[in-house]
Amino acid sequence: MFKQEDHEGRPPTPARNLEVAEHWIRDRLRDGHWLAWVVETGREICGHVFLCLVERMPDPYEDNNPVGYVTNYFVLPSQRNKGAGSALLEALTQHARSACLEGLVVWPSERSTPLYQRLGFQPPEELLELPLGT
């Protein structure tokens, strides 16, 4: 359901076997470089967000805390505008602050940009991007 919304409700053709994707996610969560938060209604997951910790090259003259890459943020349409999305991002941000991350980066969708901005995310001043167009 997470990616179907981007394709107007039609499931996209999978690029990989679901079991392979699940194995990849489990491995990354287990080694601690990826973290995930979920929100539930009743006993059902209705939203999630993931955080990848990106290491930085050691520098003897300043802190080199990791940067957090925020991705796969999704809340079921039936649960939107009820605080679930904000709760997910606030929990992630609180964790990032307590872990002393350097900052958080995200490539937001057009729809999610206002939410990120309400929570303090801003356009970068120093980031450059080279799209490689696969």
Strand percentage: 15-25%
Instruction: Please give the number of β-strands.
Output: 4
Average per-residue pLDDT, rounded, comes to 88
Number of helices: 3
Specify the biggest β-sheet: 4 strands, mixed
* Order of strands, widest sheet: 1-2-3-4
Q: Return residue spans where pLDDT drops below 50 for at least 5 consecutive residues.
A: none
Order of helix and strand elements from N to C terminus: HEEEHEH
Describe the structure.
By secondary structure, the protein is an alpha+beta fold. It has three helices and four strands. It has helices spanning 18-31, 84-98, 113-118, and strands spanning 34-41, 44-54, 67-75, 104-106. A four-stranded mixed β-sheet has the order 1-2-3-4, sandwiched between helices. Strand 3, helix 2 (84-98) and strand 4 form a beta-alpha-beta unit. The radius of gyration is 16 Å and the shape is globular. The protein starts with 17 loop residues before the first helix and ends in a 16-residue tail after the last helix. The mean pLDDT is 88.
What is the fold's blueprint, element by element?
Blueprint: H1 18-31, E1 34-41, E2 44-54, E3 67-75, H2 84-98, E4 104-106, H3 113-118
Name the descriptors:
single chain, 134 residues, alpha+beta, 4-stranded mixed sheet, 3 helices, 4 strands, 23% strand, globular
